[in-house]
Amino acid sequence: MECQGLFRLLFELCFVSGFMLSAVAAGGSVGINYGRVANNLPSAVKVVTLLKKQGIDKVKIYDSDPAVLQALSGSGISVVIGLPNEQLFATARRQSAAEEWVSKNVAKYLPNTKITTIAVGNEVFVDPHNTTRYLITAMQNVHSALVMYKIDDKVKVSSPIALSALQTSYPSSAGVFKQDLAEVVMKPMLEFLRQTGSYLMVNAYPFFAYKDNADVISLDYALFKPNAGVVDSGSGLQYTNLLDAQLDAVNAAMAALKYGDVRTVVTETGWPSKGDENETGASLANAAAYNSNLVRRVLSGKGTPLRPQTPLEVYLFALFNENKKNGPTSERNYGLFFPDEEKVYNVPLLMAKSGDDHKGSSPPVDVGSAAGGQSWCVASEEASEDQLQAALDYACGEGGADCKEIQPGASCYDPDTLKAHASFAFNSYYQKNARTTGTCDFHGAAYVVSQLPKFGKCALPTGF
Ligand SMILES: *[C@@H]1O[C@H](CO)[C@@H](O)[C@H](O)[C@H]1NC(C)=O
Ligand SMILES: *[C@@H]1O[C@H](CO)[C@@H](O)[C@H](O)[C@H]1NC(C)=O
Question: Where does the signal sequence lie (predicted)?
């Protein structure tokens, strides 16, 4: 909806190429939720083609639809499938039901369809049908079935929780689970996850927190834009974005139960591109900013303040706008794509093919040696036009390089070559990111130099 000013300029000028860049920095991974509560989506086969075109190699679905699992066969895309809440009771009641389900929905498709995890139920604690009491037994039965089929080393079992499972989430260090869940459900679940080498699935939406508290939460903080940050009064840790704070509230709640060692994966996060009037913050520009900056933040490889060494694993919500979802307008507008496969807005997905896919062609440059003094980031001689264009699009994305100066008529437009513009953008991005490791890579399209490069009459920004 809103697409104005500088954002609009960058949006139109910098996102001209549909080409998506692969992983930039080591660490972190980004997948996407392929929800299908809609009557106008493309066929599963077409969707798999779309995923591959975008470089997306991790997908999560909410069921075990045969057409989808068949279409994913041989694609190399890994998939999290779902056992719906309605089946928790039956799965918990009889081990044989779990075995049948695993046989029909998992074993049958392996290994051609790369099923990596089964989400047993979804946000079960807020299911109005009170299925929470069946959850742990259902998870155990599904795991036993995987053991029986000897696929428990390939397929993990978990269950996505909503942030509403927390009693307290602010400050993050005070995070605890609700009393009626902590001992009865969370403890046995975390014990199960630890013993089976699995992880906790968390659905986290800074949008909800912002929408309801826009008077006290800054939009920049919610959208990963530069902001003053928030210091956690308990831990003294500094938070620069709301998602990190939300995740650390969960991490703190796990640690309070002595399960701080269990991994977490963000199985859903997103921002709607449209909403009702009372849904503060729902807009195209904000959705584009949230998702672009999120991808960038994840691929930086940084963990949260509480778990700084653990890169984030995140599944965006969602692939498509879903027209049959109930609730406010926002519910039908979380998609990155319209059903006709057109983009709702542009997100350089940079899909993390395991995050370290550096078959790039940059000459060997010792970044360390340049880091002490001045250094600049420039386009590689060996990068192809496609590579440069994709990297340029990425660098100029929301919150990235300052690309105003290379627009027609601006001071750094000349020399008007792709390589020069790319160098300008790469360098701006590099300097803005404090010249940290990984911010001058662009999948091998760029490299660091310690001599001020020639760039026509325009002075390359030096940052420091
Ligand atoms: C769910 O549980 C609550 C409280 O435990 C109870 O009040 C409610 O009637 C139950 N609903 C169903 C559908 O069983
Ligand atoms: C928000 O607006 C929608 C549409 O106008 C309305 O149906 C809904 O009840 C409102 N919600 C709240 C919490 O006021």
Answer: 1-26
